[in-house]
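Action item from last week, closing it out:
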Amino acid sequence: MGVARTGAVYAFLIASAVIVSVGQENPLSWLPLQVGNRWIYDHESKEVSPQNPEIATWTTEETITAIVSIPEGLVAVQNVKVTQGRPSGGWVEQRGNSGYLVHDNCIYLLTKSSVDNTTHQLSSAYRQDLANGILSPDLCFPLAFGNQWGTADVPWRIERRGDPTALFLPPKYADAFDIRSNHFGSGGLMDVWFQKGIGIISERYLHQGTYGEWTKRLRAFIQAPQIKN
């Protein structure tokens, strides 16, 4: 199967996806990876020191442009366009800049080095790491309090629903899932807030060694018009 660019094919992919075991759910019933869907995010990075940080701000528009079937599952191809400001160039903000891999009941955020831009096939190194269980999924479904997944280098757990401080979570998303890693690579803390039917609402990364902080907040989610048969 090649590249799918219609809502009808997208619906077929949801209906035909295989759920590998009891208790797992189709990721596409949680994250709407329909061609044409767009997410607009505001970003901020702070570096050097908490007392006198170097601050960068920018805005991105992330659009699903195609759904591609590959042996490992589905790739949702994503175009990320900077619409305002200038990115800081940090490695953590590169997650998902090439799309998403739907593999079993989990989703992996792809970078430009992990997938071929022309064929949308996974790179040989990424494919091997996936087969060997080296890669940590970013999201595994269903989401429920206490669920855990990942690797020793990037372990994830669901802390709670909602953020009492409301620091990174708009009030309308007060019941979003807080997904946390206390070891995001080398000494980093990462929180991801996720709302079913919309996706990632907010993210916050804080490095525990040399100072570095990055936040990403959803400004708008624009759903593509549904194609009627």
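Closing note: The longest helix spans residues 7-16.
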